[in-house]
Amino acid sequence: MDFADRLRVSAIHFLNPAPLMWSFEHEPDRSRLNQRYELSSDTPADCAAKLASGAADIGLVPVSALAFTPSLAVIPGCAIASRDHVRSILLVVRHPDGVDGVRRVALDSASRTSATYTRILFSRFWQIEPAFVEHAPDLEAMLRTADAALLIGDPALLALEDREARERRTGERLLYLDLAHEWHSLTGTVWVSAFWAIRPEAVLASHVTPSQIVEDFQHSRDAGLAHIDALTDEWSTRIAVPHETIRTYLSENIWYVLDDACLAGLELFYRYGVECGALPLAPELGFL
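User: That's the sequence. What structure does it adopt?
Assistant: Structure tokens below.
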């Protein structure tokens, strides 16, 4: 295949997708996949924007993206999800009355789906209507402008690791809410953050068949899950999080299979998102 014919893949640069990316980043599959796919590293919000604009053909997009670009097809089988505690989606609350006292929330500007989950939790379950503002993922700066801060991905993991040290430094005790756990406790369903989505027209223009695409991405997921120890070793040199925490995060906190339980959680997410005004529509999932 000519390199000009490769499908453009927008991937997320956080720790949590690392198992999904295994074959794209490691031999013996990397060279083969490099003939079919051209990778870029982006934030979740940028992944969605690049697919919507046509700047990418495949993206690991926040699940909320489908409500804004319903023409996208979902590559079956792969997800970034959590069946209880996720650790990397945190609402950090400063107000002494906890969530009940929150009037302003700073949302991590890299987030789209987690911001929607946050709006759903406040509106439907906590029955509070705070103001929401986007902010770069800097906990101290966020809490200077708001009562609560939403952090996602690696910044959330780092904030959680720094929790006790921050209390010693400042003498202040904050409330750290794991929003996947809150969602699971309140709805009984799985928290689903992202999945692989593709522009159908890109498939028609490509020399890669739909079945090859599905096989490539599911194989990469399976290979990554078989190499959790190697991924843990790699990532422990990249972020200031203990080795065992990374291993637990990849093997227990994140669920990588887009199964029926995930689909049930997504159905609820889309319905509640529309009901609270955070999403324009509840899309039907069309699979590649």
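The two ends are 22 Å apart (CA to CA).
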